[in-house]
Amino acid sequence: xxxxxxxxxxxxxxxxxxxxxxxxxxxxxxxxxxxxxxxxxxxxxxxxxxxxxxxxxxxxxxxxxxxxxxxxxxxxxxxxxxxxxxxxxxxxxxxxxxxxxxxxxxxxxxxxxxxxxxxxxxxxxxxxxxxxxxxxxxxxxxxxxxxxxxxxxxxxxxxxxxxxxxxxxxxxxxxxxxxxxxxxxxxxxxxxxxxxxxxxxxxxxxxxxx
Length: 210
Hints:
Elements: H1 2-10, H2 22-46, H3 50-74, H4 82-94, H5 99-118, H6 124-148, H7 150-161, H8 163-172, H9 175-199, H10 201-207
């Protein structure tokens, strides 16, 4: 009884104060890959058209947000979000999406960690804001080079979708449109978190996340 009281008083039973265990790392790795697959599935379908390509990062964050929300509930511990964020960024770089996308995921994961830390890993609001920033960063990494590094992305898009396809995208996007897409990605990130909370209500109750 005395030891139990000390554990409670010292916060040893709090998940956010425990280090990442082997089972946590496995869960983060497996569901991080599922998050990546969900993202690329939506991206692949929408990218068949120019308009779809432009909104694909934002739309993909809705489905992927459910997985991300589960991970945050499943492992409410410091630095947990760096693993899926960095994993997704590295894999995307390896499959040829470009280094800006990888960097954007790294930055997004760090921002998500910061937001979760503010809410002590138990705040749905701060966890949602963190994921929305991941979504916005993904949009920035995917589309900002279209404006500031046009030749780099024209070469890459042309190689995968044809010269005409790449040129259509370059001719369509504008700085104003880009800003609107970033805002859209933030909003769809929030929507993805809300859907995750709806579908994972029981997990939220068990984790005590408000």
